[in-house]
Amino acid sequence: MTIFDIGFGSLHLRVPPVARSDTDAHCYATNLGAAVPEAKPIPAANRLLATLPRKERQDFIDQMQRVELVYGEVLYEPGEKIAYVYFPNDSVVSLLTLVDRHHALEVGLVGREGMVGVPLALEISLSPVRALVQGSGTAMRMKAAPFLRAFRESHALQRQLHHYTYALMAQITQTAACNRFHVVEARLARWLLMTHDRMLTNPFQLTQEFLSQMLGVRRVGVTKAARALQKNALISYSRGNITILDRTGLEAACCSCYEIVKDIHGAA
Ligand SMILES: [Zn+2]
After folding, report:
1. In sequence order, what are the beta bridge partners of 10?
2. pLDDT value for 238
3. What's the helix, strand, coil split of the chain in %, to 5?
4. What are phi and psi of 61, to 5 degrees?
5. CB-hemisphere CA count at 13 Å for 118?
6. Which of these ranges, 61-70, 164-173, 214-223, has the smallest mean pLDDT?
7. How far, in Å, CA of 163 to CA of 225, rounded?
């Protein structure tokens, strides 16, 4: 069961553990994560890394650091040089586009299925979007220069990143249409499901202002949509707590964009 706590303008999401059997990739902890003892093998849950051939994957991971990404942390701003790429394990990163310098709208979501810093795989060193940590958790981080060397040498990595880039483009274009044509309630349901799919065990915190950016609506619109989902017994919303009661029902309530994007990511 997924539990949200909304109160005083903040929202906390707790999700059930997700099996990590989709990967046997391992890496070695750095001193960046206080809870992870140094040099102890830990799973790299990122699925893109997990698809690489074993030796290539290990060589690649050996050049990485495992880092803790913290909710609200900005990894890149638009126009900034991409210093690192990130392969999320159980963290979630939002890609936001800025309009008139102060309006921000989410156009993409990256979790353990992908990589943050895709422009580098297209030989572009600047980020066109703001990359904002939406869900705290771990990621595998690599400096741009060694990443580019590895990318140019590895056909397997090129293949995976080409497929992922296609899937991310499809997600971004679908999100553009979704923001224009689908109602807030259906988009909130989609957003909850997409985030749930990408989280492992970590809770994450989210302000209502942040969620309004994700959906491109005012805070009152977020509250109204959450209440509508509660009325249909898909979530509960009481004294600041929201609980997903019926994930299947939530899938039925969300717009068609959820399945379209999920299928593309699954096939890529
Ligand atoms: Zn939609």
Report:
1. 7, 207
2. 65
3. 40, 30, 30
4. -70, -30
5. 26
6. 214-223
7. 34
Of the pLDDT bands very low, low, confident and very high (cuts 50, 70, 90), residue 29 is very low
Mean pLDDT, the chain, whole residue set: 80
- Centre of ligand 1 to C-alpha 57, Å, is 35
The amino acid occupying position 114 is: G
Q: Which residue has the tokens 């990894």?
A: 75
Mean pLDDT of the region 76-103:
92
Count CA atoms closer than 13 A to 102's CA, side-chain side: 0
Could you tell me the distance, in angstroms and rounded to a whole number, from the CA of residue 17 to the centre of ligand 1? Answer: 27
Say how many Å lie between the CA of residue 192 and the centre of ligand 1.
Answer: 13
The Å distance, Cα 174 to ligand 1 centre, comes to 7
Ligand 1 geometric centre to CA of 62 (Å): 39
Which tokens is 204 given?
């994450």
CA angle 200, 205, 211 (to 5 degrees): 105
> What is the Cα gyration radius of the chain?
18
User: Is 108 in contact with 168 (CB distance < 8 Å)?
Assistant: yes
- Taking the centre of ligand 1 as the mean of its atom positions, its distance from the CA of residue 139, in whole angstroms, is 28
Going through 10-110 in order, the beta strands assigned E by DSSP cover 10-14, 26-28, 41-43, 65-69, 74-76, 84-88, 92-99, 103-110
89 alpha carbon – ligand 1 mean position (Å)? 26
Question: How far, in Å, is the centroid of ligand 1 from the Cα of 191?
Answer: 10
Residues contacting 26, CB < 8 A, separation 6+ = 41, 42, 43, 44, 58, 61
Residues with CB under 5 A from ligand 1 (ion): 178, 182, 255, 257
Q: How far is the CA of 188 from the centre of ligand 1 (A)?
A: 9
